[in-house]
């Protein structure tokens, strides 16, 4: 019988790595033993676990998928092929891939603070200045992907991880597409992504492109500002209809003019009219907030609260509290001494 609060014992796995190091064809090696811990999230194809690398002591994330059929295995290998070619501080780092008879496991960098979605759930709507800072970092990651002909295809706050210092890491490339094999991906004939963040050309099955990520980025900006993506009150089919038929998704009220202009640039129905990720890095909205410089300064207090770290008390309030406490103590002592002297005088009067 399990004791109350008793955690499930971690499970250990050792499997053969299917990808050779140094691109040596036909060379196989065993990936270091991993000790699986608690489940920290789930994606489109499986669950993500925190794990301990038993040879280095490094904490890693393991995306684990039950092998069911060849098609699913093909999708997972596509994600691995994309990630293993990436080397960017704004994209989650690929460590390795291991497989046994039951599971496929993608071993990734562990990003300690969870997703931007969890940050929004913890703190609610984020201020525009902080959203600008996050957007700048997201665009850095997108610019790298697009430079390498990769479309993320499912950009949203849940797929953007944050570090304790306020940096971001794009993750979850299960439905991402390499434009070099675009024809093969299009043959599936199914829109990929999450409805509220989908670009119109994806819904109409005209094919995803790098500009599709720009539309999703604008939806993510609205998500961070308001706590919800566009059309959050509608069912999925209605969302898809409105994205295609409306001129653009409804914009939040009380946003600055530069942000309004930024969103309108991203929400062009014609993908060819949308700016590139690289061009958006110099957008006036981001420049007005000096977005590349402010993130660590703004994000750290938020992340401290997320980790349960309380800020130090205000010096003025602290001083006032100490002074008040001291004054109360002094008054009590004076009152006690006064009563003692009165009792002493009464005793002397009786003795006389």
UniProtKB/TrEMBL annotation:
Q: Which UniProt keywords apply?
A: ATP-binding, Kinase, Nucleotide-binding, Serine/threonine-protein kinase, Transferase
A single GO molecular-function term is: MAP kinase kinase kinase activity
Q: Where does ATP bind?
A: 63
Q: Name one GO cellular component term.
A: cytoplasm
Instruction: Extract the SMART domains matched here.
Output: S_TKc
InterPro entries from the xrefs? Kinase-like_dom_sf, MAP_kinase_kinase_kinase, Prot_kinase_dom, Protein_kinase_ATP_BS, Ser-Thr/Tyr_kinase_cat_dom, Ser/Thr_kinase_AS
Matching Gene3D superfamilies: Transferase(Phosphotransferase) domain 1 (1.10.510.10)
For bias kind Basic residues, which ranges apply? 330-344
Enumerate the Pfam families for this protein.
Pkinase
Q: Where is the composition biased (Low complexity)?
A: 316-326
Q: Where is the Protein kinase domain?
A: 34-286
Q: Where is this region: Disordered?
A: 305-352
The family classification in the record reads: Belongs to the protein kinase superfamily.
Protein name according to UniProt: Pkinase-domain-containing protein
């Amino acid at each position: 019988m399990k004791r109350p609060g008793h955690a499930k014992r971690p499970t250990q796995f050792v499997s053969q790595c299917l990808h050779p190091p140094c691109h040596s064809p036909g060379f196989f090696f065993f990936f270091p033993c991993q000790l699986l811990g608690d489940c920290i999230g789930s994606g489109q194809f499986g669950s993500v676990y925190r794990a301990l690398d038993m040879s280095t002591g490094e904490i890693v994330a393991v995306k684990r998928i039950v092998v069911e059929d060849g098609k699913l295995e093909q999708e997972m290998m596509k994600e691995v092929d994309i990630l293993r070619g990436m080397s960017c501080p704004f994209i989650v780092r690929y460590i390795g891939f291991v497989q046994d008879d039951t599971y496929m496991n993608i071993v990734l960098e562990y990003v300690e603070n969870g997703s931007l979605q969890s940050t929004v759930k913890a703190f609610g709507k984020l201020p525009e200045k902080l959203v600008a800072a996050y957007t700048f970092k997201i665009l850095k990651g997108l610019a790298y992907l697009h430079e390498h002909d990769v479309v993320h295809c499912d950009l949203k706050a849940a797929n953007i991880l944050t570090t304790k210092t306020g940096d971001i890491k794009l993750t979850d490339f299960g439905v991402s597409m390499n434009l070099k094999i675009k024809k093969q991906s299009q043959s599936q004939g199914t829109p990929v992504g999450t409805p509220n963040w989908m670009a119109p050309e994806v819904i109409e099955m005209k094919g995803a492109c790098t500009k599709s990520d720009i539309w999703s980025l604008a939806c993510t900006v609205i998500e961070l500002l308001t706590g919800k993506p566009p059309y959050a009150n509608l069912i999925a089919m209605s969302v898809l209809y409105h994205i295609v038929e409306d001129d653009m998704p409804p914009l939040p009220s009380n946003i600055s003019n530069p942000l309004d202009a930024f969103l309108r640039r991203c929400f062009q129905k014609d993908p060819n009219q949308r700016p590139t990720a690289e061009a958006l890095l110099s957008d006036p909205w981001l420049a007005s907030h000096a977005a590349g410089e402010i993130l660590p300064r703004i994000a750290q207090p938020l992340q401290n609260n997320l980790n349960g770290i309380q800020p130090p008390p205000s010096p003025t309030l602290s001083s006032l509290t100490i002074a008040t406490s001291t004054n109360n103590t002094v008054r009590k002592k004076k009152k006690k001494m006064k009563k003692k002297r009165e009792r002493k005088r009464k005793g002397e009067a009786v003795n006389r």
